[in-house]
Records
---
Amino acid sequence: MGLDTMTRADAIVIGGGIAGLSMAARLANEMRVIVLEAEGACGYHASGRSVAFAHFGLGDRIVRTLTALSLFEFREMESVSGDPIASVHPALHIAYSDQRAELDALQEVHDRFECAYEILQDAEIESVMPTLKIGPEHAHRAILDTGSLRLDTDAMLQRQMADLKANGGSLVTNAPVRSIANDAGVWAGETPVGAFGAPHLINAAGAWADEVARMAGVPTIGLQPRRRTVISFDGPPETDVSRWPFTKTVTDGFYLLPEGTGRLLASPMDQTPSAPCDAAAEELAKATAADRVETAPSLDIRRIAHSWAGLRTFAPDELPVIGESPDAPGFYWDAGQGGYGFQTSDGLSRLAARSILAKAWPGAALAAGITPEALSPSRFARKP
Ligand SMILES: Cc1cc2nc3c(=O)[nH]c(=O)nc-3n(C[C@H](O)[C@H](O)[C@H](O)COP(=O)(O)OP(=O)(O)OC[C@H]3O[C@@H](n4cnc5c(N)ncnc54)[C@H](O)[C@@H]3O)c2cc1C
């Protein structure tokens, strides 16, 4: 690797998705940061394919706490600057009669996080989501969370890129890192547009994060990318669907979300294991999405207007991986954001940046049990 011609910084971040950008923008306040993105534009992979709805219907206690901390900040940003990154939009979590226990557990979560919500039954559900089939075998009981947020992923990515630049950091696109070496404590990544080196290397490569570790000779985590499919179709004729809630079955099934006034998005909540790749929607997943939507909310999908798929990448315990590798000083992980990378991005980027700067984590996170140990890559270290 040509060390003489290498561009040097204090930290190199591999990956220009929401994870890499949001953490790099914070870090750039304190050190010289360069983000390397393989594609021609940021957000080409998972971050450009997200449905980006922030709610409490997924993840465990840690993920939900990270969501709550991030939502608080998103709401503050909106009220202080009028920034359009988030807008309040209701979420309707529906349960059939035999899913009462799951809905009760989700109600406890809404209580714990002091969400504004109502419990709806049968006809009350129909009044907020008119096309749902109602009854014990269909939507029978529901939680209507009136404080959940719809996120604007493009605005979020743009904002992080602007903050990165304003804080003195830089972004290099079309820069796939193809080899990594460590020479006397400096990590160096070789790309087709040159070599970049720094004492801190941050692996925010999403579905490719284990591949990046392998390139660097660092033990991998066992990350699993899982494909998720979304279809888009016209809503009922002459009906403004824009105020319909984000509607999700309390367990596996489907979710549905308005897109503008006349379109709906739906997903069968598939999670098919995949190798890291440019994911595409498969026919079976599209058909499953259409079938679940047609059998449950009684919508007539005449034509799928558009479809896509993306990879949600999970660690074996489905928690994010944040912190320094126990086997490789200066090599940091910011990976495993699963299906909640946007809704937790404010909290997670704060913690990731503090790990790299060797600063204590905020008291609110520690009090909620979100400790460096809980998210550290050390939890996967092989026992001798
Ligand atoms: C269909 C779908 C729906 C979703 N819905 C939601 C939702 O409602 N709410 C929510 O919060 N989250 C949601 N998510 C999850 C969210 O999108 C992800 O958690 C998040 O985007 C992950 O961000 P990331 O930066 O880790 O990954 P990515 O966005 O994939 O970024 C990783 C980047 O690393 C780059 N890279 C990889 N290897 C290299 C290399 N060697 N050199 C340089 N660059 C490299 C890639 O090109 C890529 O741009 C959804 C995801 C999908 C697919």
---
Amino acid sequence: MGGRKMARDEENAYGSQDPEDQQPLAQERRLRLILAGRTGVGKSATGNSILGHRLFPSRLAATPVTRSCTLGSRSWAGWRVEVTDTPDLFTAQGRHADPDCTERASCYLLSAPGPHALLLVTQLGRFTAQDEEAARGVRELFGAGVLARAVVVFTRREDLEGASLHDYVRATDNRALRALVAECGGRVCALDNRAEGAERDAQVGELLALVERLALEHDGAPFTDDVYGLAWARRHARPEDTLRLVAARLAARGLGRGWGRQWGRGRRWLEATRRLWPLALLLLGGALLLVLLLLQRGAPGPD
Ligand SMILES: Nc1nc2c(ncn2[C@@H]2O[C@H](COP(=O)(O)OP(=O)(O)OP(=O)(O)O)[C@@H](O)[C@H]2O)c(=O)[nH]1
Ligand SMILES: [Mg+2]
């Protein structure tokens, strides 16, 4: 869980009524973004493009690169843009790596009091069953309502070779992808995360303008739910205590009870009862012997 940075006691320019939380007018408004998706699609690379510098570790690897949620921020067009990079929290594999919901709680704390946009990252031309699973996991964690704040971000824009992304999405025979894009209100964007300089700035500008429009459609208020409410209400408390409470709230929703957790519990139970096994076997053997003796006594004898 290294590298985690806790949510700060700051509010966007809108929601809070608490006078303690009011920001000076000159302060930048906030746009909070969460990067989500299966492992290896380019979440961290997308985060780095948005920030304009390399903050999140990003590389080609056979195993997950990002292991914990991390927050980065930058200024853009009068906004303070805050980006939370995540490990795979949304597929079964990712959830198994977070059996007690601590990492998902960390994502909540870093993006409290709630994101203005959720970036569902996928690779152009490779929308797989795992991408579908990740989208399902996002709905499961935040609720289906979060898709009203989602943007499907395609990495490897260069593979479009200048063609239109909207035409690509319209023409794709991948029905699951078309359905997801429709659920996300048709909000799509493509990035070449290898681009640099003015080309990168232009692509990121397109994405952030889309996010800005989305935020303004909701009068600047972020997406929120009861867990964000809890995280935000405890923003002045010790972060480690809040993390524990938020993780417990998520676990109470059943989010921590995947097969991995059941298996972990079963294994712990077997280990705890190992010393009782010889006694249990002895009792079982005795009971079997007794049943055999009773059967023999009840059987008719030779004529
Ligand atoms: N050519 C190209 N490569 C990209 C692009 N975006 C990401 N990549 C590459 O894809 C690989 C994986 O990128 P990451 O950013 O580590 O992916 P991730 O989703 O954060 O992966 P995890 O942290 O393991 O979940 C890296 O080698 C990136 O350079 C892109 O737009 N174009
Ligand atoms: Mg990553």
---
Amino acid sequence: MGGNIVGGDTVTATRSGNVYSATIPAFAYGTAVSFHFRATDGVGNSGNSAVMSYTVQDGTAPIISSISTSPSAPHYESATTVTASVTDTHSSISSVTLYYSTNGGSSYTAVGMSYAGGSSYKGVIPAVTYGITVRYYIRAVDALNNVRVSSTTSFFVDDFSGPAISGLSNSVPGSSTRVYATVVDGGSGVESVVLTYYYIWNGDQVLGTPVTMGDSNNDNVYQGTISGIPVGAVVYYTITATDFEGNSNSASGSFSR
Ligand SMILES: [Ca+2]
Ligand SMILES: [Ca+2]
Ligand SMILES: [Ca+2]
């Protein structure tokens, strides 16, 4: 036995038949409480029971609050950090674990959350395929194995980057010239590829009608045809590719007829 005696009190026991009972008030977690009964008869003779003791345990689970993700709108090419405030009223936090599901809750993957100062804990969900709704919850355990599980939340894995455009090239320039570009979008996919152009001829700038580029054989190489180019013209073109989330990218080239 160790520690300091910091106080004591007397509580009058109440009787039920020959059984006496008394209530000791609540004490802080970890407090060692000793008690005994003293009984006194009608003429003042008294006797003490043996001294008993117990240590106040922590029966309260941690509190999980302020759950957030960074970025607030997750992108399919980036990991998502989940942050939460986890506190325990009576003892200490033993573990904080993040559980996430990418299959609608059929199965969850556990990720340890690390202490990040204050009451903050952070866990990382690796990059997830575009279009998935990720469900997640947090489980916190205190030093006495009291468990708190947060409610389940979710976020949609979005696509914020435009298609990648590469490999601009063109056929041998004639009155009709084909322009090619490789266009790839790993997220929501390529919705449209449009070729806009103008040409300079005899000192005039002539604006062409935009051309929708196609990829009928699905090899990511899109092609469009610019027609009616006079001999001696210099053609300047821009290819604008847009994905199904409305993100665009452009690339430009030129050729002379
Ligand atoms: Ca607790
Ligand atoms: Ca995209
Ligand atoms: Ca193609």
